[in-house]
Write a structure and sequence with these properties.
- The chain is an alpha/beta fold and about 300 residues long.
- It has two domains: about 160 residues, Rossmann fold (3-Layer(aba) Sandwich); about 120 residues, Riboflavin kinase-like (Elongation Factor Tu (Ef-tu), domain 3, Beta Barrel).
- Helices cover about 30% and strands about 25% of the residues.
- It has nine helices and 14 strands.
- The chain has a six-stranded parallel beta sheet with strand order 1-4-3-2-5-6, sandwiched between helices. Strands 9-14-11-12-13-10 form a six-stranded antiparallel beta sheet.
- The longest helix has 21 residues.
- The chain is elongated.
- The protein starts with a strand and ends with a helix.
- About 35% of the residues are buried.
Amino acid sequence: MEYITGRTDFKLSNSVVSLGKFDGLHRGHQLLLNKILEQKKFGYQAVMFTFMYHPQNLFSEKELDLIYTEEEKKYILQKSGLDVLVSYPFTEETASMEPEQFVKEVLIDKLDSKMIVVGRDFCFGHQRKGNVELLKKLSITYGYELVVYDKIMEGDQVISSSFIRSEIAEGRLENANQFLGNPYTIMGVVQHGRKIGHTLGFPTTNLIPEKNKLLPPSGVYASITTVNGRKYPGVTNIGFNPTVGKTPEKRVETFIFDFNSDLYDTFIEVALYARERGEVKYQTLDELRAQMKKDIVYGRDYFEKHPY
């Protein structure tokens, strides 16, 4: 997969393009992605176009926490078969582009779009004045095919990134995963920790996520860790380790069941399935050790009832 980021001096040809924010790559996004991937058999390039930073960030002092960071999104899409991911710079200049200017200068001149695939509520251009009606009108002028997908529902709830973010932020992982279509996952290279888990008899892998990664509340979760394509059940603690001296940042520490290989400097994926409990400061290491044994029982029991 070609990854074009932070620059505007590129030119593609014969592209089918899906446009959007794509935070979480949820079930609605997957419809758009699958549509462009289907066109590859006809000789087209499958291109996903998004912005390098979430558009909300330019106009807000608070950085939006993302379900998947840019690196995580890139990794997922690379495995999907996508040909090109464009993370276009979202600057004041980009934000001030009139909708038709964006279509002509970006979608046509840079991407050579033969098909454009969007969601029904897709808006673009200065003050978000561009919409699917304008895209339909301009398709006659510029000769592309427009494919529009309606929002999809889970029960009476629209599947959206904002709703999924709220579910993750509340620790409702099972519900969030249902809407995502895949388990919410934290990815990264295993770091050296303080080896407290090893001292307690439960060695853990340690990830330190990027600052803009949306994390669920501190606590313990049933998890599946993927290492070199193989999946292993376990339990994951997210938090600051208050019992053994608080860490400066939230960490993701996973005890993988029946696994004893050294994973330092190895890229892993930790998928969270369900929340067991919140993070607690114990008075002694023996209390912490006893609770960790209970957490492991919870995790094993969870995956016996929910095969992965």
